[in-house]
Amino acid sequence: MNNLNVAIDVFPYKEDIWSICDYSGEQIYSKLALPLFSLEKDEIKPLGAESFQQTVDSFRINIRKDLFWSNGDNVKAVDYVRAIKHICYDENNRYNKLLASVAKLGVETEIHNDHSFTIQTSWYDPFITQYLSLLNFSPKHEHDDDVFAGPYVLVKKQDNLYQLIANKYFMLDKNFPAVEKINYLLVEKDPNGEAFFDGKVHVSCNTAVNLKNYRIFTAKKNFVAAEGNLMMMLSPGIKFDKLPNHVKEILTSKINRNTISARYDNILKPVASWMSMYFDGSYYPLRDAIAYKKSSFIIDISYEDFYPNDEILEDISKQLSGFNIEVRKHQDKYGYWLSESHLRFEIRKIPQRNPVQIIRSDLSNISTSHAKFEKIKKLYSMLFTEALSSQQPEIFKVIDFYLRDHCLSLPLFIFPTGFFCHSSILENTLYAPGRKVLIKEAVSEN
User: Fold this and answer.
1) What DSSP state is assigned to residue 104?
2) Within the chain, what is the greatest distance between any pair of CA atoms?
3) In 3D, which of 255, 242, 377, 239 has the Cα closest to residue 302?
4) Rounded distance, CA 159 to CA 164, Å?
5) φ, ψ of residue 32 in degrees (nearest 5)
């Protein structure tokens, strides 16, 4: 199979690889990317990097010598440094502060030769390789952002189509049969995979399936289930600090996730803490709210109009009404959280390996005047003490407890993804950053 058609339910709202931060955007741009590391089954492996050495205050990377831009030129160390600087200097970039340990970037970044560079860090950062596995930290060309170092090149971008062709100079998967052209087609609503069965696409959209039919789909030929990718959650909105404490207590302890899950054939997996996804799965339980104020309260919750967000918000609304809380819903445009809301209903990608990215995001919502701010800040700093590395799981658990206890972290359900896929495609390469989409040699094209 040389041409592959893949369904996408919405196209990205960011349009360059260094700022992409939405799920659909990551699916497309993963094929243009070449980050320094890859994260596979919770294990970090070199990708664009060949090797690295880390000390308390520095991080040295040696990149591979067989990396090439789509124009045939060699990818050099300076190209990765340029990308890191671009992200860290752009205050509008979601990942702007991710490499917070990088000290005076530019002044303290040393390029040794074409294939080696060192970044000085202000403190020991045990998560730096994990950050550098994000597709955003792909090399940036000196003159042309339309030149890519990943396995594919973006050649066409229209209202209903993103078209990629293979980077003929990409060497990492050179010994395997691979798809030469990928067409990402906009298919906004396709709950039963009709676009696949009608022959319009070879891969259906992996976030569009009707959850009530999910178990039926798993029994079908060509269906690929991926149950641990996304988390449904409530996160603080612009007006979060105006929530009364008794409302926060009800939100943290009285949403009955099991009842909602049952409506979807228990396909949605209830989650009370992010820690249930990591290490041994244990977390500290919250106390149950006992006393309720009878005064009514209107809570504003914003959301994006994707299935089944509105339905689940309706279920939550009905439950909260029993505590004299009225939910007022506000629909926001994809990627633009503009509503003045107390909370946002989000579907967020679940980070692999550990919850540091989630913790960082939740911590950013804490006011410096918060009663527990200094305590949580001190706990967070302990994650970056090399001598305490063996205690990371416990430190994460304590931080997670405080965040949940103050309604700053409200995970709800693991949202299962799944898609129909042509039998000749090696499905685990479809969305892997820095890898071509590979073809199963033993399977002939239908």
Assistant:
1) S
2) 69
3) 239
4) 15
5) -100, -10
Tell me the residue type at 252.
T
Q: What average pLDDT does the chain have?
A: 92
pTM of the model: 0.93
How many whole angstroms separate alpha carbon 28 and alpha carbon 24? 7
Question: What whole-number distance in Å separates Cα of residue 343 and Cα of residue 247?
Answer: 12
178-216 residue pLDDT tens: 999 999 999 988 999 999 999 999 999 998 889 999 999
Angle at which helices 392-405 and 373-382 pack, to 10 degrees? 160
Taking the CA of residue 334 as centre, how many other CA atoms within 13 Å lie in the half-sphere pointing to its CB?
Answer: 15
pLDDT of 446 reads: 37
For 438, which DSSP code?
B
Strands 343-349 and 223-236: antiparallel
In the DSSP assignment, the letter for residue 284 is P
Alpha helices in 140-204 (DSSP H): 194-197
Kindly state the tokens that stand for 406. 């103050």
pLDDT tens per residue, range 74-91: 999 999 999 999 998 888
Q: Residues 171, 68: contact at Cβ < 8 Å? A: yes
What is the number of H-type helices and E-type strands within the chain?
Answer: 11, 16
* Dihedral over Cα of 185, 186, 190, 195: its sign: negative
Beta carbons within 10 angstroms of residue 177's beta carbon: 14
SS3 79: helix
- The DSSP code for 23 is H
Cα–Cα distance, 12 to 21 (Å, whole number): 8
d(CA 353, CA 30): 19
Domains, the chain, in order of start with CATH, read 1-33+150-204+421-446 (3.40.190.10), 34-137 (3.90.76.10), 229-417 (3.10.105.10)
| Token pair 């996804």: residue | 277
Amino acid identity, residue 213? N
Report the distance separating Cα 56 and Cα 38, nearest Å.
23
H helix intervals, 97-184: 128-131
Mean local confidence (pLDDT), 165-188:
95
The strand pairing partners of 182, in sequence order, are: 4, 164
Structure tokens at 216: 């039926």
- For residue 245, give both structure tokens: 């404490």
